[in-house]
Write a structure and sequence with these properties.
4 helices, single chain, 3 strands, alpha+beta, 3-stranded antiparallel beta sheet
Length: about 110
């Protein structure tokens, strides 16, 4: 247990879920990617991440929950090592228990002039 006297910040409650049509569509698409690219070998996991990134930003929670990738940060690192240009932004997102956590959101950079 964390001692609050030492400056620990209590967990924030997550805001009420605002499931929208766009969110439902995104989840359905991530599930399709996972079904189309089955398997747990690292190459297949990287393929799932890259496929999802080509369609938009991908958070740690989304990668774990819908793409069955338990260590998304490692897959992102491997893709970067292969030359894929991926940015990381930080967001607060609720976990399944409803608490906000600082999470990475990955964005594929395309067409960036160097």
């Amino acid at each position: 247990m964390i001692d609050k006297k030492k400056g620990a910040v209590p967990f924030e409650s997550a805001p009420a879920s605002n499931t929208s049509a766009a969110n439902s569509t995104r989840i359905a698409r991530l599930k399709t990617i996972a079904a189309d690219l089955p398997g747990n070998d690292v190459e297949t996991q990287r393929d799932r991440v890259l496929t999802a990134l080509r369609e938009g930003p991908l958070s740690t929670v989304e990668a774990r929950r819908w793409l069955d990738i338990m260590h998304p940060a490692q897959r992102i690192l491997e893709l970067r090592d292969q030359g894929v240009d991926i940015d990381t932004t930080w967001t607060l997102e609720p976990t399944d228990c409803g608490r906000l956590h600082r999470m990475a959101r990955y964005v594929l950079r395309v067409g960036v002039a160097g």
